[in-house]
Design goal:
The protein is of the alpha+beta class. It is built from 4 helices and 17 strands. It has one domain. Strands 3, 6, 7, 8 and 14 form a 5-stranded antiparallel β-sheet that branches. Strands 10, 11, 15, 16 and 17 form a 5-stranded antiparallel β-sheet that branches. A 3-stranded antiparallel β-sheet has the order 5-13-9, with no helix packed on it. The longest helix is centred in the middle third of the chain and has 23 residues, at about 125-150. Strand 10 (about 170-180) and strand 11 (about 185) form a beta hairpin. The protein has helices at about 1-20, 125-150, 255-260, 270-280, and strands at about 25-30, 45, 55, 60, 75-80, 90, 100, 150-160, 165-170, 170-180, 185, 190, 200-205, 210-215, 225-235, 235-240, 245. This is Lipoprotein.
Length: about 280
């Protein structure tokens, strides 16, 4: 019994020491069996930026999705409002990892030969064309859903409001890594095509001296490098701390862009292509 108590005290000591060492609050999530270690050969699209926790400053158990924003205040802000750059600190915590889902962790190319705007390759589709198009789109969406439902290994990404005022959050982010030339390059992109919009949006209020937590994929590959997060909030750019990690160098490849945007048909014009080619990497 004394031996068990001693082991418990040793574990508790080292756990507390680690917490004091980095000074960051820890997210406690439910244990997930068979969480996937992502080893991607392609650059992935990060579409979801759902926070794991909001307005906290100490260790916190991650709530279920429906209860996550019970106590979060939001404000409707006009789309064209000029919002100042807040004093935010972006931190990747590598002292532990968590499991999260809603990642399409394998690159799934968008189908091309499907009906768009009532046409198939510029022609009025037949009934057989409609059936084939529906089958192709269903298969595509099923693949994405299957990937999104799986849990993958992630690092916590903590955003801390250093200021004395509330910060309104409309955030998106990607991971970048250093290539062999020592330059930072994106290894992820973010694009979610919106068919329409109201021009207004609700933004959540991050209280002073509080954190909001997200997650980023913990990649595995054969190329050892430094990794950071490029974080954009209301068009303002921030960068996280740099961490050691491994990726596959093929994740730098951007050859997919032309084919990817062409799959949206006439919804994305040539001028849109120039804009989105920059915006997917959070460039102006």
């Amino acid at each position: 019994m004394k031996k068990l108590l001693l082991i418990f005290l040793i574990i508790l000591f080292f756990s507390c020491s680690e917490r004091k060492q980095n000074g960051l609050p820890k997210l406690i999530d439910s244990k997930v069996k068979n969480s996937i270690q992502v080893n991607s050969k392609e650059m992935l699209n990060i579409e979801s930026f759902m926070p794991l926790a909001f307005n906290f400053d100490e260790d916190l158990k991650v709530k279920t999705l429906r209860h996550r924003f019970d106590s979060v205040r939001s404000k409707k802000i006009p789309f064209d409002s000029v919002i100042p750059k807040y004093n935010l600190k972006i931190v990747i915590d590598t002292s532990y990892f968590i499991s999260n889902n809603w990642y399409v962790y394998n690159f799934v190319p968008r189908p091309k030969n499907v009906i768009q705007e009532g046409r198939l390759n510029g022609k009025i589709p037949t009934k057989i064309d409609q059936q084939k198009s529906f089958a192709i789109l269903t298969e595509y969406l099923d693949k994405r859903t299957e990937l999104q439902e799986a849990n993958v290994n992630c690092y916590p990404l903590l955003v801390y409001n250093l200021s004395e005022n509330e910060a309104y959050m409309n955030s998106e982010f990607i991971q970048e890594a250093k290539d062999i030339d020592g330059k930072w390059k994106p290894i992820e992109f973010t694009f979610l095509y919106e068919m329409c919009g109201t021009g207004k949006g609700f933004q959540s209020a991050l209280e002073p001296k509080k954190y909001v937590a997200f997650s980023i994929i913990k990649y595995k590959g054969d190329f050892k490098t430094k990794i950071r997060v490029k974080f954009r909030n209301n068009r303002h750019i921030y960068y996280s701390n740099e961490i050691e990690g491994t990726i596959n160098r093929s994740q730098f490849n951007q050859d997919f862009k032309k084919s990817y945007f062409e799959s949206y048909g006439s919804n994305i014009s040539s001028s849109d292509f120039d804009f989105y080619s920059k915006d997917i990497f959070l460039n102006e």
